[in-house]
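Task card 7
Instruction: Convert sequence to structure tokens.
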Amino acid sequence: MEASLNQRRCWKCVRAVFTCKTYQNRKPEEFAHNWPTMGAYNTTYQYSILPVPGQEFWEKVDTLPILPPRYKKPIGRPSVKRDKRNDGPTEVFDPHRMKRRYETIFCKYCLQPGHNKRS
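Output:
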């Protein structure tokens, strides 16, 4: 099986580059792309994009305005999300319901209130 130095996707490629460096006195940079270099980075980002003035400075055109795309209902069961507006304490006073009262817990060993045997 030969290593394809054009694709460089396997361990055999690394071995081939190492062999070329060791026995043929060739540089590994000959087998690599130039895009991870600082020169390629500086060439890519040498131009800057200037900010666009606000919408009030745009020129008016006599064409139809661009509208957002139509809403398409997704296929499948809709996800139900919790109504976050009603996230408060919901104490509804109902004279026909008894209020829940929690009793104080006591430890089985030391007989102190506030914790139980496990805590």
